[in-house]
Amino acid sequence: MEKRINVTRSLLPPFEEYIEEIRPMWESHWLTNMGEKHQKLERELSKYFQVPNVSLMSNGHMALELSLQALGLKPGGQVITTPFTFASTTHAIVRNNLEPVFCDISPADFTMDTAKLEELVTDKTVAILPVHVYGNICNVEEISRIAAKYGLKVIYDAAHAFGETYRGVGIGNFGDASMFSFHATKVFHTIEGGAVCYGDADFGLKLYRLKNFGIRNEEVVDGVGANAKMNEFQAAMGLCNLRHVEKEIEKRRQVAEYYRERLHGVDGLRLNLRQEGVTSNYAYFPIIVEKEKFGVSRDEVCQKLREHGVYARKYFYPLTNGFACYKGRFDAGMTPIAWKISQQVLTLPLYGELGEPELSQICSIILALGS
Ligand SMILES: *Cc1c(COP(=O)(O)O)cnc(C)c1O
User: Fold this and answer.
1) Considering only CA atoms, which of 365, 366, 323, 331 is closest in space to residue 86?
2) Residue 312 Cα, ligand 1 centroid: separation in angstroms?
3) I need a labelling partner for 270 at 20 to 30 A (CA). Which of 42, 170, 221, 226 fits?
4) φ/ψ (deg, to 5) at 71
């Protein structure tokens, strides 16, 4: 292929539409600090997500870090999570002086295996931080049940689950809070950005102050906050992209269907399952390459695609509990399913504008490698 194809390509609204969106800022000179665009995007996203409250943040990571802080968890407490995720999830726990405890994942949907969750609860456990991986929804019922039984907080990493619903309920309604990422590589983005969905007003107030240096009012600063404010240019990008995101998701669905059509039923290739009751956003198209059956390994498939200019990603690999910065601290052997999947998974290029000639070639390259 002549042109490089990346795993994703950021959605952009028509240029003129963005210019119109930011034009009023040349009148108001209000560029950040919870301005008009910020307020409007919060309102529109609450509607879109069907949640009571949305707090915008400078990025998804700060949304997660500050949510954990706003929950006021006991320092040193244990947070049960999974290692099959982006660096952000585990780092957010550690940077809050909390201790991650890794639960293995389900081989079927790559989210927390709730059959292994309860045995990890100790008297030090304070919260559960599960991840809706690739937009696959966690077992929210079982997580709620266990959290209620032991009095634990639940905060979801919903970075992959933009706009999804489970049995008609917006996915941001589960747990005490859900974090969304609006990074440029996500289905919906604000260039950099993120949000927290929550129900409790007191939590919301704490979160609001934490994203603005802990300032209560002009004369009182009573929290050790950070700066995680989304600026008006980011919010304007979000307002534009929100008008186009449904169309983008529909196009992504068609791309995913194309892959499914060509790659299903191949010995040694496993595709992501379709979850009952979930409206998918088609954020990712992971395949599991089982070398014993397919003939070649994930790494070989990835390499061969690269030789043709196709940059699929080993996402998620390595596991966060195997990161160099955590050397000697965690044992990746404790989560064998996650480890195995991390060796086998490859995320294929997926975005609305990915054309049929490219898709066809990507599939042909993969299929030609199979035994
Ligand atoms: C993207 C992502 C994040 C972090 O979001 P940013 O907006 O990039 O800070 C966290 N968790 C997961 C699973 C992600 O994919």
Assistant:
1) 323
2) 18
3) 170
4) -75, -15
Structure confidence by residue, pLDDT tens digits, 79-115: 999 999 999 999 999 999 999 999 999 999 999 999 9
Q: How far apart are CA 305 and CA 311, in angstroms?
A: 7
283 closest CA partner among 148, 177, 131, 169: 131
Q: What is the 3-state secondary structure (H, E, C) of 247-306?
A: HHHHHHHHHHHHHHHHHCCCCCEEECCCCCCECCCCCCEEEEECHHHHCCCHHHHHHHHH
* Residue among 94, 138, 157 whose CB has most ligand 1 atoms within 8 A, to mutate: 157
Three-class DSSP category at 80? strand
Helix, strand and coil percent figures for the chain, each rounded to 5: 40, 20, 40
Report the sign of the C-alpha dihedral through residues 223, 42, 190, 312, in that order: positive
Residue 189 Cβ inside 6 Å of ligand 1? The answer reads: no
Q: What is the pLDDT of residues 140-192, one digit of tens each?
A: 999 999 999 999 999 999 999 999 999 999 999 999 999 999 999 999 999 99
How many angstroms does the Cα of residue 186 sit away from the middle of ligand 1?
A: 9
Task: Give the 3-state secondary structure of residue 125.
Answer: strand
Q: Verify whether ligand 1 is closer than 6 Å to residue 160 (CB atom).
A: yes
Q: Could you tell me the distance, in angstroms and rounded to a whole number, from the CA of residue 64 to the centre of ligand 1?
A: 9
